[in-house]
Amino acid sequence: MEMEQGYFLVSGFAQTPKGTPVNEMYKHIGAILLIDRTTNCIIKSDFSVVSSLTKEVLQDLIQGFCVNEPFENLANKLKHHINIPSLGAILQAIKSAIDRYKDTALNTKT
């Protein structure tokens, strides 16, 4: 993948729900987002989840989301398509990554 200066990689984490397979494996869920600094939109993403299908669906749904939009728009979109025990933790990890992006990349554009 050819990287340009206009991209920013950021991550966020959240504690997993007890009694779920993801909790047995990871204890925390990570959301790693590659964001285009010009558009503030998510280009690619990765998630520390057990199922490759879950990861693939999350990646498809989150790609193109612009972090300038209200987070509730993305949360509602994910809730409309996904009903798994770890969804709350996934949303928290994504929100944490977006908040980190806003706190750092938006304040240090070069």
TrEMBL record:
Ranges of residues in domain DUF3870 = 10-102
Q: Which InterPro entries does the record associate with it?
A: DUF3870 (IPR024617)
* Domain of life according to the entry: Bacteria
Q: What is this protein called?
A: DUF3870 domain-containing protein
